[in-house]
Amino acid sequence: MPQFADKMANAKPSAVVKVSEKVQELKKQGRNIISFSIGVPNFLPANHVYEAAHKAIDGDSGAYLPGRGSEELVDAFVKRMHEKGLDYKANEVAAAVGGKQALFNILMAVLNEGDEVLIPAPYWTSYPDMVTIHGGTPVFLNCPSTQDYKLKPEQIAKAITPKTKVFMFNNPSNPTGMVYTKDEIKAIGDELEKHDIWIISDDIYDRMIFDGETFHHFLHTNPALRDRMICVQSISKNYGMPGWRVGMVAAEEPLIKKLLTLNSTSITNINNVSMAAAAAAFGGDQTFSDEAVKTFTAKRDMVMKALANIPNLECPMPKGAFYAFPDVSAYYGKSHDGVVINDDIALCTQLLEKKGLALVPGSAFGEARGARISYACPTDQLEKGLALFTEFFAEMREQNKMAS
Ligand SMILES: Cc1ncc(COP(=O)(O)O)c(C=O)c1O
């Protein structure tokens, strides 16, 4: 067999997708599985989105559309960004097949072999693999639960080398649900101003923020960063539309031109019907998304109440997205039903085998002391899953004579 490309040597398929495939396999075998694993928002967009999609099908000419995105999508996106205090013109945006392809193409456009990419950890699972596929070297900035999973500016200062090319930032965070305050954004922004590196701001959960807190962006606090800022958006999480596969990028024109070249040589344009639906989501009434935030806040509270009753777990309060990331490491080295739980993988495997509950091991996000709970599942499933989770740790404490 001929050889594969060297750049594929270290690339792994998404760990989250692997867990959800395992869940599907067990379900097919007849097991009753509750999944806290996948980041599918579990709400549907409002009627105006579907109406726009139907209209697009009815009026379809079957033609190619611009790689930047249809005029209506670009206009709706520019308007939405403006409402967030992020001013970009139509020539400063480009569409992609979801936020994922946007990130992939951005890295393709900016990375040379050996360039270093700063990634706060815990991180979204796909970042490091995207970096290595494009010849870059991920440099992780560890942000443990003891610092609320949040990055401190001095960590950037320490990690910068002449090879640093990109800083990848995600707020609100998948997997921790952390949301940065204005002061925290400003402090990191001030540090970034000292370094001429690209900043990828993955803002795809920016509407999913709880407790009346607000989304703060580096361009709000540090507008001088505009020439190296790359804003990534998506309809997947904010609008409950992951399968429609629409992502958007806003950045200054030279970077956008590179992305348009990549679109024109790879996909030409994203799907016409999806573009119409995305334009309606960005441009139309946002109430359906606001309602989802209320539901997620209630579910977050259910999760945190259950976790608070489990001794020896640490979980900083999530303020956004739909994930919680408890530090479960106090239970490592103990056993459950005769199986030694040495790490996050052993713990999640045992939870799945014995309780039929699927979580993603924290090592998939660069923090092996934790495990990710996605609470974007129906409320009855969430209740049952939390009861199983609680029961599992109670059994561990009892079997290992741990203090309660
Ligand atoms: C932080 C983050 N960025 C990007 C993505 C990609 O999302 P999509 O390609 O569905 O827009 C995800 C999906 O889970 C994510 O959690």
How would the blueprint of this fold be written?
Blueprint: H1 15-28, E1 34-35, H2 47-58, H3 71-83, E2 93-96, H4 98-110, E3 116-121, H5 127-133, E4 137-142, H6 153-159, E5 164-170, H7 182-192, E6 198-202, H8 218-221, E7 229-234, E8 247-251, H9 253-266, H10 272-283, H11 287-308, E9 323-324, E10 334-336, E11 339-341, H12 344-355, E12 357-358, E13 360-361, E14 371-374, H13 379-399
Parallel strand pairs: 1-12, 3-4, 3-5, 5-6, 6-7
Antiparallel strand pairs: 2-8, 7-8, 9-14, 10-11, 13-14
Helix pairs in contact: 2-10, 3-10, 4-9, 6-7, 11-13
Bound molecules: pyridoxal-5'-phosphate.
What does it look like?
- The protein is an alpha/beta fold and 404 residues long.
- It folds into two domains: 150 residues, Aspartate Aminotransferase, domain 1 (Alpha-Beta Complex), CATH 3.90.1150.10; 239 residues, Aspartate Aminotransferase, domain 2.
- It contains 13 helices and 14 strands.
- The strands form four sheets. The protein has a seven-stranded mixed β-sheet with strand order 2-8-7-6-5-3-4, with helices on both faces. The chain has a three-stranded antiparallel β-sheet with strand order 9-14-13.
- Helix 2 runs antiparallel to helix 10 and helix 11 runs parallel beside helix 13.
- The radius of gyration is 21 Å and the shape is globular.
- The mean pLDDT is 95.
- The site of pyridoxal-5'-phosphate has 13 residues, from helix 4.
Radius of gyration, in Å, reads 21 Å
Strand count, sense and barrel status of the largest sheet are:
7 strands, mixed
**Strand-residue fraction?**
5-15%
CATH architecture of the largest domain: 3-Layer(aba) Sandwich
How many domains would you count in the coordinates?
Answer: 2
The averaged pLDDT comes out at: 95
The CATH superfamily of the largest domain bears the name Type I PLP-dependent aspartate aminotransferase-like (Major domain)
Bound molecules: pyridoxal-5'-phosphate
The strand count comes to 14
Shape: globular
User: Which percent range fits the helix content?
Assistant: 40-55%
Strand order of the largest sheet: 2-8-7-6-5-3-4
End-to-end Cα distance, whole Å, is 57 Å
Series of H and E elements: HEHHEHEHEHEHEHEEHHHEEEHEEEH
* Class from helix and strand fractions: alpha/beta
